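Attaching the record inline, Q. Sequence:
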Amino acid sequence: MVSVSGYFFWPFLVLAALSGLGCRDLLQTRHAVLRNYPLAGHFRFLFEAVRPELRQYFFESNQDGRPFSRERRSMVYDRAKNVEDVLPFGTELDVYDSSYGWVNHSICPKPHGQDDMRVTIGGPDCAQPYSASLYNISAMSFGSLSGNAILALNKGAKAGNFYHDTGEGSVSRYHREGGGDLVWELGSGYFGCRADDGGFDAEKFRKQAVDPQIKMIEIKMSQGAKPGHGGVLPGPKVTAEIAEARGIPVGKECVSPASHSAFSTPVELLEFIARLRELSGGKPIGFKLCIGHRWEFMAIVKAMLKTGIKPDFIVVDGAEGGTGAAPLEFANRLGTPLRQGLTFVHNCLVGTGLRQDIRIGASGKLISAFDLAGAMALGADWVNAARGFMFAVGCIQSQSCHTNRCPTGVATQDPLRQKALVVPDKAERVANFHHNTLKALVDFTAAAGLDHPNEFKPEHFYLREGLREIMPASVALTWLRHGALLDKSHNIPGFSTYWDMAEADSFNPVKTVAAAKSTHHQGAH
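Structure, as predicted:
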């Protein structure tokens, strides 16, 4: 007769319970962390459950590229899960912070509207205008994100009737399988229409651009997270799927230059835009950039006036935008933040009488109804977001994007890790997040006494200037009147000097700052 010591009973029971929990973790489809890290993944949820005591030590909110605050992440997660996002005991933001901003409410709030929250993009030369949602998925490439993440994002975009920007990695099989509306981003590597020498291939572009799933084409001039920086995709990372999407050889190093080879002057950029519009059958063509030297963007505006060619849209990317990996100094100290860049672009177009024909999009840490309302108050027609939708598909900001060891299967090409991301579940969350964010924007708009978000103006958006002064953006920032820059006698601080330096045929300034200032100073007298 075999007897079992009682000393083995309790350890056996514990191990059996843990084994059962581990099996359950592997089989469930709601939490990617638990699928990749059975048992151990529960510690993540334990730590997140700790409320104010340890929160300041984790997920600190800031504006220089580090993680979002826990509150903003939780808001995205709640909306993605269709959970009401409420907060007891009032705001936890520092209302005395010099960067704090807000929108004032009305004493006579409006009833909630039923508008579909869309904007039509396409200027006078566009044959196929596109009706876009006010909130869309910003540029994230296949290769940076896993196939499952791309598929979940695109299926969510299709379900919610909003667009998905491909990023410069071009259109992959996962974008096509999802069936959602696409904006094809064209970077300096010309992926998807790349010639053997790395330049632009017009015929390859035409064949892909006429695809009905592609609604617009966006030329990437620069991105906020690392403006003025190219990239190298090492050969070992060029898998068969990535090579297929980008039109490059498998296993060979691929270089994306810091600047484009298809054009080198503002006039050539606009001629390239006109060429793409013709090759695509008249689809909206625009460009995305993070504002750098002001005279360079003004040179593009002058080229619009000289040639009569205008982009259908411009997307302004703020320097606070994120990426999978960027040099620290680029992420923190290079490029213009969204608020300043957006208002500058809007003012330049208003000041030259071009604004009515060109739509403006905005991107850079915009995930809440306030973010959307604030961007629209400062000149945006619609908003794009990357980070919020990444959270919706399961990103937990582990900041391991560049290691290929993403714990949730979002930013990895490891086939085992990305299996943890269950596409149907995450696609639903993407659609939920979009729907609930726009619903919150409707509520926000009604509370401000407005009928539609496009009615938000600078006077609705308040800023704290310094530690004491509180001003509406209509006073705190400069706003140009229609055609102001076309008046030769103008002397507008922050604009006139750079306008005088800009030249339609070159991105280089034709005058020094001192000479331009002297010219306008003399003109003022």
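The chain has two domains: 12-49, 134-464. DSSP finds 20 helices and 15 strands in the chain.

More tomorrow.
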